[in-house]
Amino acid sequence: MPIIDLRSDTVTQPTQRMRDAMYTAEVGDDVYGEDPTVNKLQAMAAERMGMQAALFVPSGHMGNLLAFLSHCQRGDEVLLGDLTHPFTSETGSLAAVGGIQPHTLPNQPDGTLRLEDLQAALREDDVHQPVTRVVSLENTHNRCNGAPLTVEYTRSVGEWAHAHQLKLHIDGARIFNAAVALGVPAAALAASADSITFCLSKGLCAPVGSLLCGTEDFIYRARRGRKQLGGGMRQAGILAAAGIVALEDMIDRLAEDHARAARLAAGLAELKELSVPTPHTNIVRFAIAPGASTQPEALLQALASEGIRLSYGHYGGFRAVTHYWIDDAAVDTTLAAFKRAMSA
Ligand SMILES: *Cc1c(COP(=O)(O)O)cnc(C)c1O
After folding, report:
1. Dist. CA 9 → ligand 1 center (Å)
2. pLDDT digits (tens, 9 = 90+) for 12-24
3. For the structural domain made of 12-249, what CATH number should be given?
4. Cα 283 to ligand 1 centre (Å)
5. Given this model, what pLDDT does residue 316 score?
6. Per-residue pLDDT tens for 290-311?
C-alpha cells in the first residue's frame, strides 16, 4: 500500500539530483573552513537573504539557539510569541543552554505579535530587571495555520526593535514558503532582521540542515557557538551539496504545494463534521466541528488503514502538510478516504 505522509514537510526524501550531487560532492574539513561545497552553500544562503554571511548548521533548532546565544548574555530576555517554535518545541534550550529568559506574548491568529504588546513587555533600565535583548518572529508561522508575515509587518517590528536597541531574529524555517506565497524575494522578508534561520530539510527536500544568516561578526560568534554545542561537522559538503540543489531547484515549485494545500482544504471543508480554515501556504490545520460526533482517534485510524498519515494533537487539532512527494493524485486519494471515513 502506498503511504501518503502528510504529517510534515520534514518527511521529504531527497530528490535524485540531490543524491547525485551528494555522491560527487567536493569536500574538505569544514571545521577548518575548508569544505568548498559548504562554503558555496553558505555564500548562496547569505546572498539569498541579503545578509553578509551564513553558517550551515545541523538543524533549525540549533540555528535559532545559536542566534539567541550570539545576541544575548545570560539573564537577558527574548520577546517571542507563545505559539512559536523556540518556545514550544525546542526543549527549553534557550533557558537550559543559554540561561536566557523567554518572555512570551500572545501570538495573534495571523502569527503576528502586536506592537502594543511588545512595547508593554519592554524592560526598563532598572537594576532589578532583566535586559530585553531580542525580538523573535516566526515566518511562516507553523501553529498559526502557516501564515506568512508580510514585509511591511516585519519592517514595523524591526523599526520598533532597533529604536529600542534590540535585535530582530526571524525563525524562517519556512521563509521560502512565505516568499512564494507573498510574491516577494526572501531577502525582502529578511531585510529588517539582524539574523534569520531557514531550513533546507522541510519543503526544500534536503536530507539535513539549516542556515543561520547575519553579519560577518555575528556569524563569527555563531561559528564558535556551534563548536561549543558540539555542532562542528567535518566533510559536511556531502550534506551541503543537497542544500545547493534545494536552493536551485526547489523554491519556485513551493507554489504547487500551496495550490495542493488549498485544494485539500477546500475538499475537507465540504465535510460537515470538519472545521477547516483556509490555509495560507502548505500547512492545512483543521478540527472536528463543534458538536460533531467524529472521534479524532477513530478518524486517524480509518485514514491510517488506507495509508494516509496526519499529525494530530499539537495544540488541539489536525495538521496536514503538502510537499514535493504529495502530488494531485495523493490529494484526490486523501479526500476520497476522508469521505469514506466520515460517512462510515
Ligand atoms: C521545523 C522548525 C524549526 C526547526 O526544526 P529542526 O527540526 O530543528 O530543523 C524551527 N522553527 C519552525 C517554525 C519549524 O517549523
Report:
1. 11
2. 999 999 999 999 9
3. 3.40.640.10
4. 14
5. 63
6. 999 999 999 999 999 999 999 9
User: How many Å lie between the centroid of ligand 1 and the Cα of residue 164?
Assistant: 28
Is the minimum distance from the CB of 141 to ligand 1 under 6 angstroms? no
Query: What confidence tens digit (pLDDT) does each residue in 96-124 have?
Result: 999 999 999 999 999 999 999 999 999 99
Query: Residue 314: its pLDDT value, please?
Result: 57
Q: Is the CB of 319 under 6 A from ligand 1?
A: no
All cell numbers assigned to 273: 463534521
Fold of the 253-343 domain: Aspartate Aminotransferase, domain 1 (3.90.1150)
- Determine the 3-state secondary structure of 135 from DSSP: strand
Q: Where are the domains positioned within the chain? A: 12-249, 253-343
Residues 6+ apart with CB under 8 A from 180: 251, 252, 254, 255, 258, 281
Q: Which atom of ligand 1 is nearest to the CA of 64?
A: 10
Alpha helices in the chain (DSSP H): 16-24, 36-49, 60-71, 85-88, 93-96, 115-121, 151-163, 175-182, 186-190, 216-228, 237-249, 254-269, 296-304, 328-343
Give distance in angstroms: CA of 10 to centre of ligand 1.
9
246 CB within 6 A, ligand 1: no
Give the nearest ligand 1 atom to 61 CA.
8
Q: Is the CB of 93 under 6 A from ligand 1?
A: no
**Using 50, 70 and 90 to split pLDDT, how confident is the model at 313?**
confident
pLDDT at 248 over 70: yes
